[in-house]
Structures are given as C-alpha cells and as structure tokens.
Amino acid sequence: MNASLAMNQYKEVRVQSSVMDATPHRLIQMLMEGVLEKIALAKGNILRKEIAQKGENISKAITIVGGLQASLDKEKGGELAENLNSLYDYMSQRLLMANIQSNEAILDEVADLMLEIKAGWDEIPGILNV
Predict the structure, then answer these.
(1) I need a surface site. Which of 42, 57, 63, 109 has the fewest CB within 10 A?
(2) Which pLDDT value is given to residue 42?
(3) Using an 8 Å Cβ cutoff, are 33 and 15 in contact?
(4) Whole-number Å distance between alpha carbons of 7 and 15
(5) How far apart are alpha carbons 1 and 118 in whole angstroms?
(6) pLDDT greater than 70 at residue 3
C-alpha cells in the first residue's frame, strides 16, 4: 500500500470518529476550523501558482460556509441568525471573488471574519458553564 494513501485513509477515519463523538457545538467549531484550513491552503496554492488546487480549496471553503449557513435556526436564532446568514452570504461571495482574482487579501478578509465568529462561538461553553 502506498504511504500517501494509507495516511489519507488514517486522516479520514480520524475525522469520522471525531465527528461521531462531537457535540453539536463542537461540530460547528469543526466546520469553522475547516473553512480556516481551506483558506490557508488556498493562500499557499496562490503563492505556488497551483490554480486547480486553489479552486478546489476555495470551493470546499464555500461549501463549508454553506453548511454553517444551513445549520442556522432562523426561528430560534432571530436577529442573530439573520445577521449570520447575511454574513455567510457575504463570505461566500468574497470567496468566489478571491478565487476569480487569486486575491490573498480577500482570503485574509474572510479568514478574519470567520475568526471573529469562531471566537464568539468558542466562548459559549464558558458562558453557559457547559
């Protein structure tokens, strides 16, 4: 067996078991981390002029942002959920533009927004004493 293939299979199993054991709160954190990871990878792809990989990573980031958006409960979340929905729309549009323009600054902008959202999300267990 090829070492790279074995490593990829190991990573897939590790991620699957992490997801199965995760709380709903942790799942959202993992999605946010996934967006940040794909943005970082896309920035590296831009630097190395790896156009196809850049497109794949940005596309995956957009898909994950869509997953975060789909997880919003607009009835229970009210104005906060509506604001996050609009922000996720904006982030998806900016990621698309970053892909078209191979623009690292736009990727940084989206990463900064996600970091802000994630910082707030990360505080929830402490606020709720969970």
Answers:
(1) 63
(2) 98
(3) no
(4) 12
(5) 38
(6) no
Query: How far is 111 from 44, CA to CA, in rounded Å?
Result: 14
Single-letter code of the amino acid located at 84: L
Per-residue pLDDT tens digits for 8-67: 555 555 555 566 778 999 999 999 999 999 999 999 999 999 999 999 999 999 999 999
What does the H/E/C string look like for the chain? CCHHHHHHHHHHHHHHHHHHHCCHHHHHHHHHHHHHHHHHHHHHHHHCCCHHHHHHHHHHHHHHHHHHHHCCCHHHHHHHHHHHHHHHHHHHHHHHHHHHHCCHHHHHHHHHHHHHHHHHHHHHHHHHCC
